[in-house]
Amino acid sequence: MTDRWNILLITADDLGGDxxxxxxxxxxxMPAVDGLAGEGMAFHRAHVAAAVCQPSRSAMLTGLWPYxxxxxxxxxxxxxxxxxxxxxxxVGYQAGILGKVxxxxxxxxxxxxxxxxxxxxxxxxxxxxxxxxxxxFFATHADxxxxxxxxxxxxxxxxxxxxxxxxxxxxxxxxRIPAPSQRYRPGExxxxxxxxxxxxxxxxxxxxxxxxxxxxxxxxALLVALDHSGQAxxxxxxxxxxxxxxxxxAKANCYLQSTRTPLVIRWPGRTTPGAADEEHFVxxxxxxxxxCEAAGIPTPAGLDGRSLTGLIDGASEADRDLAFTVFHExxxxxxxxxxxxxxxxFGYIWNAWSDEGVExxxxxxxxxxxxxxxxxxxxxxxxAARVEFYVRREPEELYQLTTDPNSLVNLAGDPAFEAEATRxxxxxxEWLESTGDFLAERYRRDLAA
Length: 449
Fold this sequence. Notes:
single chain; alpha/beta; Alkaline Phosphatase, subunit A; Arylsulfatase, C-terminal domain; 15 helices; globular
């Protein structure tokens, strides 16, 4: 039997950072995640690197910003860039992946000994299929260390019960998808504050919550399978989402709700049950060095993240007072370069793409929410202004997150907040240069113009 920690990394697909009630969301929607948070440590200021699935996941498994690992959009990680499983294999780990297999490219670079596709997992939505696959993996590798990345495809579109679900999946695939253990009605829970309260928005949010519950059903199935394997006491369990909800002002952007992720780590004997870090900003980039340390591997030089073990052990780290995030490319390969820096009070976004004649368009505008907003804009000036801003933006956005957590009032250009804007511009410029961002020089020029 191995003396190294097993690692179970569970990811959700397009789950908002505040959807589990343990992270401020509606009560009871994700009881398994809430239970895991009660057994481990929840990081309330955790962010992913980029709010779209493939770049987000590639950043996790390289520990590098997308413009440093080559996977800025839906393309492979660059040749010569090491991935987490390279290091784990060197010390005897067996690595497997359930779902989202093609969202880490090239697939053969990761050396998976087990890889099971979305279709084999009930379109990535069948808890029993995940349970069976995980049970087999745990049993096969009971006497050697293992790393299993289990990726739920919920609550990615199409949402449960939506017309899009029927249109996108054929009868055979629909038959593979079970109902969630609980479904929600429009208006049962308020829509997020960054969206208007419109009937179409409420209906789609209810479908999203139902899909989130089915994601939680998958989490529960995986945790039960781990318990039944007898290996839970020597397994580190991590849960997080790859990015925010696939609706306007969330996924494929750089807002707070775009990149905030509900990160939970349960490390037997190390995390204090029910611990919550509400102070420090952490990144999904930090998982790579954390897991290297857990596996007894020297942390590779040059990573963009750093280990979370100090925070897990209760230390305070004064230099974790900022979160940086990026966006490059939509799933349709349209470039909308964005950069963001947030602290405990303010969020600053630079939209390098925002220019006269350019209109934003992304997958988060599919479905009922954007349609409802666009329809209401004809009669509601507030919604009309929100719609117009979304497709055009401004080169700079500044939000006072303590009073405006939903980023509704852009303060860029307001003289009363010029000192804050100046401070964050300087912070942004320094960070772009220090990480080798290809837009660093242009950002300096734009500031000087």
